[in-house]
Amino acid sequence: MEPPFAVLTYPDESSTEKRIARWPDNEELEYEIVSCSVVPDGHRGVRNRITTRVAPHAKSGRKRSDMKPIVANFLLFAVPLFASAQEITKKPVFMDAGVVEHDANSGRVTSKHPRPLFQAVEALSQEYGWVIDFEDPPYFSKFDLTDDTDPNWKARHPASKGVSRVAGGPFESIFPEPAAQVSKEQVLQKVISDYNLSGNPGKFALRKEGENRFAVVGVSVKDEAGNDANVPILLDTLISVPQEHRAAYETLNLILDTLSTAAGAKVHASMLSTNGINAPDIVVGGTNVSARTLLLQTFDEANKYRFIRWELRYSPDINGYFLIISPASEVQTGSSGTRSIRFINRPQTK
Question: What is the C-alpha to C-alpha distance for residues 223 and 144, in angstroms, rounded to an integer?
């Protein structure tokens, strides 16, 4: 039985962190976004909405008074609504973001997250302005996953399946600072190598996807006996998509639907805004081409000015993936020390 999900609809938001929602029975429950997609309202002058599937993850340990409740409208799609825990259960405290620190000739990245390599790579991407895609392997064993269901909810629904999360934790890597003698590829290889020796879930490899773009891809997981087992890389799956004129978003959905059929695992598009890929007419397609190649072509054609990056997140609870799409960004520090986020633009040719 699949874990219980509800569907939350609310005006455009930009945050995917955990929140507290008030449910129809007036109970409060912390929820975590597991997928989201833009749903046009279909009426002129009405903003798009975001339809979001949420799951009953256990409390993070933060006090309810520290979090602003959201009063939301919920639409149920043939799935049971779940109740909340009234007591806070102590859970591992994770970092909100990875941290990059600098010494004379080296850097240090620190993370603590269910997917610690993703958090570390995200921190490096924003620190140095690198475009890096990240792809989960299909975790399935007790060595890589842990139960993350709210215990009080689970006690009231003993026959229902809860939710799982990747069982990652703390991670740290010291790497040479990128310079003329040290390439960004060498830095990323060092961080990935350190991660693969850390005992955290999965093993990963680096792919160069273009002159200014890399992918960190999962290549190995633990099997039920605790041994390393190589797994296929989902986006390397060969597919065929007719080369025709389509809207960018339509092309993306066609690629993912075709990939889902070929790979035998559903791949959902997940984004908080279609603004980055709203081109009304692009031509992308090919025969026996990797899904990765078609995605890169789609994003190149859909947005000529900004890099669009992805995180391919595996969900063991549904045996499927979410392709989380967002503009690549970096952190800039002003003369006063103020830090701000800016999008990474593509090099423009004259």
Answer: 9
What percentage of the chain exceeds 70 in pLDDT?
A: 72
pLDDT at 75: 31
Place of tokens 């639409």: 75
State both tokens at 104.
């004379």
Cα first-last separation, the chain: 56
DSSP 295-344: HHHHHHHH-SSB-EEEEEEEETTTTEEEEEEEE-EEEEE-TTS-EEEEEP
Distances (CA, A) of 290 to 27, 121, 259, 283, 308: 46, 24, 9, 16, 18
- Residue 19 to residue 33: CA distance in whole angstroms: 9
Buried b (16+ CB within 10 A) or exposed e, 300-320: ebbbeebbbbbbbbbbbbbeb
Count of other CB atoms within 10 angstroms of residue 297: 19
- In total, the chain counts a number of residues equal to 350
For the chain of 350 residues, list the mean pLDDT of each consecutive stretch of 10: 39 39 42 38 30 48 33 31 39 87 91 96 94 96 91 84 91 90 90 97 95 94 96 97 93 96 93 71 94 95 89 92 91 78 77
Element at 101 (helix H, strand E): strand 99-102
- Condensed to tens digits (0 to 9), the pLDDT of residues 6-59 reads 334 333 333 333 444 433 444 444 444 443 333 333 322 223 333 344 455 554
Q: What CA–CA distance (Å, rounded) separates 94 from 60?
A: 8
For residue 264, give the 3-state DSSP assignment. Answer: coil
Residue 115: helix, strand or coil by DSSP? coil
Burial class (CB in 10 A: 0-12, 13-18, 19+), 347: exposed
Rg (CA), the chain: 21
| pLDDT tens-digit series, residues 208-235 | 998 889 999 999 999 999 999 999 999 9
**Could you count the other beta carbons within 10 Å of the beta carbon of residue 240?**
13
